[in-house]
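ingest -> fold -> write
write: protein_1
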Amino acid sequence: MAKKKSSDDDKIFAFLGVFLTVVGFLIVMLAKKDSKYAMYYGKQGLVLFIAWIVAWVASLILGAIFAFIPVFGWIFSLLISLAVGFGMFILWIVGLIYSLSGEMKPIPIIGQFGERINI
């Protein structure tokens, strides 16, 4: 995506879009629909929320599969859950930093999906 400088007001709404994920997306949609920068990060926040739900469900399924193995399975299930949670937290932090940068940069791994949302 092309890099574009933004105003401080747009940066605040972009930050809210990522910080509050789905609620932030709704705030940006209602207050800053005409701001390409704020909408870009509102969509990134929405995709981050959806990715977190998908990753959480996947970790639950994997955890349930391995939970039947005594001790090793329980430890492995816990490690999967921790890895997913930590990974999503890192992506969220990266999204917050990017939203305050003034440039439209996709969140690694999942940001490309936010660019495909046409609203």
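write: protein_2
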Amino acid sequence: MAEHYSSFERGGRRWLLQRLTAVFLIGTLAFHFFLLHFVNHAAEITFAGTQARMSQVGYFATMVLFLVAATFHGVNGVYNALVNQGLEGTQKKVVGGVLALSGILLIVQGIRVALAMAGI
């Protein structure tokens, strides 16, 4: 029988955050699809409408939280997948640093876009 292996420490902080962000992402994606694909159809989505939605504090906060959660979930998932494939030592540190920097840059750029869309 194959032995279970995971780079996540069961009960650890990153393990918990991976699960919590997954639940948040499922809920937020459901909200997104309902709002932007059923309430408003694709042909009705406009730049002005996006600006109007982003100017609402609740929607803006939800989208920024979605950005942060999705970035963490993706970067953490890729990192752990690579560790599970045998990444170790210096390579592990370099890849971790590159992924962390990429995640931070993605969040910064996403927030810049969100602020521009909100007219801030």
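write: annotation protein_2
The radius of gyration is 18 Å.
The chain has one domain: 13-118.
pipeline exit 0
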